[in-house]
Amino acid sequence: MGKRSGVPHRDDELAALSLAGLEAELARAHSRLTIVEGAKAAKQWHKRIHWLEAEIARRD
Question: Domain of life here (predicted)?
Answer without folding.
Answer: Bacteria
